[in-house]
Amino acid sequence: xxxxxxxxxxxxxxxxxxxxxxxxxxxxxxxxxxxxxxxxxxxxxxxxxxxxxxxxxxxxxxxxxxxxxxxxxxxxxxxxxxxxxxxxxxxxxxxxxxxxxxxxxxxxxxxxxxxxxxxxxxxxxxxxxxxxxxxxxxxxxxxxxxxxxxxxxxxxxxxxxxxxxxxxxxxxxxxxxxxxxxxxxxxxxxxxxxxxxxxxxxxxxxxxxxxxxxxxxxxxxxxxxxxxxx
Length: 230
What we know:
- Helix content is 45%, strand content 12%.
- It folds into 2 domains: 8-18 and 99-228, Rossmann fold (3-Layer(aba) Sandwich), CATH 3.40.50; 25-96.
- The model has no long low-confidence stretch (mean pLDDT 97).
- It is of the alpha/beta class.
- A 6-stranded parallel beta sheet has the order 3-2-1-4-5-6, sandwiched between helices.
């Protein structure tokens, strides 16, 4: 079934417009950074120090441990510093790898069709804005928002909160808006926000997994979306 062109298209960032951790060793490096930092302030459980562990999982877990064990003022200060470390880690990666080929052309083409664009990401806002400024397309986006600062793991996808916040800020209706992402959590969040959920197969999840999660549309990549309207 053909779905009409949206008035608003909001997209994910990592693995949709770029791939920060194509080298998965970087996730282990991030995990080690988080363990080293939090070990200065709390007793880090051994399970977070072993094996090939996703750095974001370690960060989120240690964030919650700090909140549960330390006075609010202290845990907030520590967790803000951890957030800054992660943001800088992401920024150094995006400076090296940039955006996927064709993203600039695709963004310009979508904008030229009169589609208003936004980004909702679980990466730091600074990580998202840096490459957009570098390639000269940041002005094509009406809204750009990364994870909340101070970080709150309850307010990122699959919670629809960041998408709902974008819709409100852009004065956009659910019925005429799309959310594009590569991950099952993107599809879950989009459906919970009652927008058209659009999966792209440039991340960790297959077409079948995205469809099973409830995606309304599937494209091979972000760059294929523009072809849908031709």
